[in-house]
Amino acid sequence: MRSLVFLAFYSALLPLAFVQPFVGALVWCWIAFMNPHREVWGFATSLPYATVVFAVTVVACVLAREPKKLAANGVTIGLIVFGALITLTSLTTSGDPSETWRLWERTMKTILGALLVASLLTTRERIHALVWLMAISVGFYGVKGGIFTLVTGGGFMVLGPPDSMIADRNHVAVGMLVALPLMNYLRLQSAHRMVQIGMLAAMGLTVLAAIGTQSRGALIALAATAAVLWWRSRGKVVSGLAIVGCVVGVLSFMPASWEERMRTITNYEQDGSAMGRVQIWRAALLLGLERPLVGAGFRAPYQPVVVARVAPEVTARAVHSIYFEVIGEHGFPAFAVWSFLTAAGVYYSFRLVALSRDRPDLSWAGDLGRMVPVSITAYLSGGAFLSLSYWDYYWTILIVVAAAHALVLRTLREGAPKRVGAVASSWRHAATQGATSAATRRAVT
Predict the structure, then answer these.
(1) What percentage of residues in the chain have a pLDDT greater than 90?
(2) What is the model's pLDDT at position 218?
(3) How many CB atoms lie under 10 A from the CB of residue 198?
(4) What is the maximal distance between C-alpha atoms in the chain?
(5) Do 160 and 175 form a contact (C-beta atoms < 8 A)?
(6) What's the pLDDT band for 336 if we cut at 50, 70, 90?
(7) Cβ proximity of 322 and 389 under 8 Å
């Protein structure tokens, strides 16, 4: 029954996507970020939903009358260059070609989808709608996981949707922390008290769910995220007390088994899993140094024959680091471009805050500029311990802040809007002038 409901809803959205391309972009993001088809059963779990809606959206873009120009900014240009570089590294891969091209295809689809979304983010309303969808897509698992942690007393691990990029508990934990600042942005921008309260509740449950994954990397990412969230907040005293109260309350709720696991962070040398990660980090770095321009190719660190070439004593496995993964798989030029994407996102975020200062009509951009660096911090700190280098959700956040920056610049070029008081004054002045002119005409007559 659940499968039929989902299929009916999805099918109803496709005609809307054909008429309005941005609807198609939202549906594509929904499928990519939330993986709602993983919440159903049977044949409906494996249909090519993203491919179909992407094709419909592309056709709709060709037929639509709205502008079809991709904005040139640091993020979009960086994604295009990165796509070209990973194509080169795939052509020169030293790993299994079939595995390399499978990952190349998936990553290129992610890049093309991100560029399609970027070309349609032309208004504040569209940016706001996309942020809502992103917050709901990952926040759904935050609320669901938080409730699960409450009901089970934190005795079981929270997991993400199966067969997705955030299926692993470490991945979904960082994913929820990345989405957390987006929820706070929506809370700040909402004019309805109930929505504000609802977002606060969702944020609290999401923090609880991230802790409930029992991921040690998530705890480190949470500490970094909380610190930057406080730093980027406007009311630092109130926000600081709220953050401390929320984190202390959540941590005190977790059972003793969770506390014992988290304590292993301080003595990682005695933890086999942690030391295994350090070893594969070294192997990935050696692969990058062996072929600094092109790396070893997608998934090369997973292949024993490749790893044995530079570190025979290391067991091939997932790299568990976004940094070493990109270096080992694609070399240093691709790593530089990959890093540039984040640097561009940080730059646009700080520019949004500066440009919106003393502009109440642009307060939304200022709030977005304050929250995006918090999401970036969550990704960079949590990503140091997991393989999530080519995550479409994170790249879309960078696209959103770049689009907001372009929109704010366009607004400033068009001139500051008149304030309500100034408009009323001009109307009163015009009315007075009109009345004086009429009285003069009567006197002359």
Answers:
(1) 65
(2) 80
(3) 16
(4) 107
(5) yes
(6) very high
(7) yes
